[in-house]
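Weekly sync notes, structure subgroup
Attendees: PM, AL, DS (notes)

Item 1: joint prediction request from the bench team. They want all four components modeled as one assembly rather than separately. Inputs as received:
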Amino acid sequence: MTDTRKPATIKEIARQLNVSVSTVSRALRDHPGIGLRTRQRVQALAAQLNYEPNQAAISFKQGRTRTIGLIVPNLREEFFCMAIQAVEELAQQQGYTVLIGQSHDRPAKEREVLDSMRRNRVDGVLISLAKDTREYGLFDDLKQYGLPVVFFDRVPAGQLYHGVRCNLASASSELVDLLAERGHTHIGFINGPATLAAAAEREQGIKAAAARHPGMEIVLTDTGLASHATRIAMKQLLAREVRPTAVITFNDYVALEAMAYCREHGLTINEDISFVSYAHLSFMRYLERGLLASVEQFPAEQGKAATELLLRMVEGGEGVTAGYQVLEAKLIVN
Amino acid sequence: MTDTRKPATIKEIARQLNVSVSTVSRALRDHPGIGLRTRQRVQALAAQLNYEPNQAAISFKQGRTRTIGLIVPNLREEFFCMAIQAVEELAQQQGYTVLIGQSHDRPAKEREVLDSMRRNRVDGVLISLAKDTREYGLFDDLKQYGLPVVFFDRVPAGQLYHGVRCNLASASSELVDLLAERGHTHIGFINGPATLAAAAEREQGIKAAAARHPGMEIVLTDTGLASHATRIAMKQLLAREVRPTAVITFNDYVALEAMAYCREHGLTINEDISFVSYAHLSFMRYLERGLLASVEQFPAEQGKAATELLLRMVEGGEGVTAGYQVLEAKLIVN
DNA sequence: CTGTTAGCGCCTTCAG
DNA sequence: CTGAAGGCGCTAACAG
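Output from the run, pasted for the record:
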């Protein structure tokens, strides 16, 4: 009967076995220099008492929690869920716990979550920025306190911080090439908020490719990512004198909304108007009339790479410069 | 210049101000009986040093972490993300941090996550069970250690545990009534795994209603939730002598797969065959030919209610019996 | 109103 | 091979 009410401690084990706490501590962690006999007795009793080391005490004592913080804009997007997946797997494998936080794309909330993680003394932070974040000062503070931070996917402009991201320029160009092949010359482009570095990158890749196709016209609009904003953008495109026959959207979620708008206005997808996009969302395959193509941005790979960087910094102590890594996005044609 | 490298402590503040640590401790927490002047000086310096209380130390000292564990089968399903959302909001509001874990619907992983949370000394656990979990012994252990556990949505059979769930019986009946109204008499039913209590509940509600509609036939199949299993189930239904004109699926994800299978086999959704389902997934609205209806299971409400129960137990200390709560699911017709 | 002190569970020297 | 002792940051008696 082990109904001790409160969890077993090292001290309790020591008492019951008439040994010292340090012996128990060492025995439990297979420290060399503890008699086999003693070790077995200790471990047996620990198992019997259902002993679990008090991580709160260990964290306190060691000055590190073996926990890393992971801040994402939200959990609704499959992209971030897959990144989380990868981060957790790798982290757990290395004995780390992952504390997940959502910024809901609001800088204020982002700061709140970050402070909470700081209070909880995470050993490092992985973060994909909120779409409106322009101020990076708070991350500099962390650096000052020796708390490593690695950005992924939504990274600050420039490469002053450690991070992992996906380069979209050439995949964006391929997107345009694909549309050209299929005979599209009038193309709408619903880009995302300019605060996101990836928005500029899309635009750049798209414009560069368009320039190589004589007679091709790209009409640029944008969305704040909310569905009504997307609808307004789509409306603008449909109102053009020469209606686009293809649209490039910022991501698959935007594409869904834009396609719905088109259907509601009597257009048939893939006949009157076609769509290509970014994210390669798995749900899209269930659409009867879906995308021509979508750009894969490798969330799992980004998450994994970012975690590797972070853990290297965390474990490496002070003087480790983790660096900056760029993956290449890939066009996936349906 | 505050580049102290290591985070500021209460002790450091005390030293700089020539007061005792307890004064600082009290001042920071607005303890009554600290001079206004002193309090201000302390708080000012704390702010200047960017002081954050060391939660690891507090947890250690207090024997509680102000953290609750939240275990869900996965993050891919919108249902769980919405539940998480609600849990976090309420928990944070009460000063708690939420530690999220995924069981990936595997009992072994579920236990692992639970152990990790126990090691991390969470003050309580919210859990939606893995689909194959049949053993509840590990939860009894927690009870023994005085660690409160509240189940939600996927709860153990019976009501021996604290929990919140959604009753699906009457909404399931309404589903059948709706199909009858629309003139369907031959109906397929792809249910989920029998390990889930909610599967039996669906079946019960559906059969009860079917009995009230003379001439109605329900053909039962099931899926393990993997997409190939769903396809096999759908194949069986299409192979019937009298092909069903409507299908009830376990949830919207299953419906998507089943609908795709039908399309691939030349059927037109909502003409040759119609679908109704459970979950009310937001994505479904983007389908050109979608569901007739879906049953809303109120993830946010369940999460909120479960958190309320749990926090009551956590705060209430020993003798609080939290209880069991049942919400009523709601049919949403498109 | 403020200071002193003990101790939470564990690890880690330092002595035996 | 094992024991004793100190201390991580903080709170909470208990004294002044």
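Discussion: Residues 19-23, 26, 33-35, 38, 57, 60-63 of chain B lie near DNA strand C (CB under 10 Å from a C1').
Action: AL to compare against the crosslinking data before next sync.
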